[in-house]
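Reviewer 2 asked us to include a model.

Predict the structure of this chain.
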Amino acid sequence: METKKYGKLPPPKNDVIAYNKKRRELYLEGIDYLFGKNGQDKNVKKAYHLIKQSADMNYAYAKNAIGSFYLTGQIVDRDFAKAFRIYIKMANRLNPKAAYNLGKIYKDGLHVPQDLEKAKYYYNKSVAYAVREYLQGEELGLRFLKEAFRFSEEKINEVFEIYHNNPICEFCHGLVPVENDFAYFRLNIRWIRKTLFNTDDSINFSRGEPVLKNGYC
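Predicted model (structure tokens):
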């Protein structure tokens, strides 16, 4: 059988690891300037410039931050519709901050009719997305839980335990329960409801809901 020898494949245009590291660093440096943290003087213009570079590299956290610039009208003209679209897109990419921002918009009725059910939905999603990120090695997920929800270490352990039994499907990105006898797939996220909405209800899954097998529903 005749065989042919081929040369080595050309190297990728960008070193993926270095690329991801760079866009993450640009975002974090921008956040430091935005809030005047980690030894940096507050400089919103410089913060926007750094975050915009990261967003142009398609970093979800940075894109979400650009949405917040449009929401507040800092540096750019205020444009709620544009901010909302950015949040939706980044939430669809499982960014916890974007989901959290949508929850806050619906909770406060900011330029949209107040809808507490949608607010709960997005707050719950933001927690699940943050846990997923941290389990995949992104420390920003854990930082988000501590800063946005002010979770204690005990509460964070509780969150991780609940996520273990009700992880996100990596195919459809839905939050579905693992196939087990965990109270007939009952997902109890009381800390959000009690803290933010002064209620103590829970989400219940029946036997007819999808279940997770091998990471997919």
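The CA atoms of residues 7 and 133 lie 38 Å apart. Confidence is low (pLDDT under 50) at residues 180-189, 203-208. We have added this to the supplementary material.
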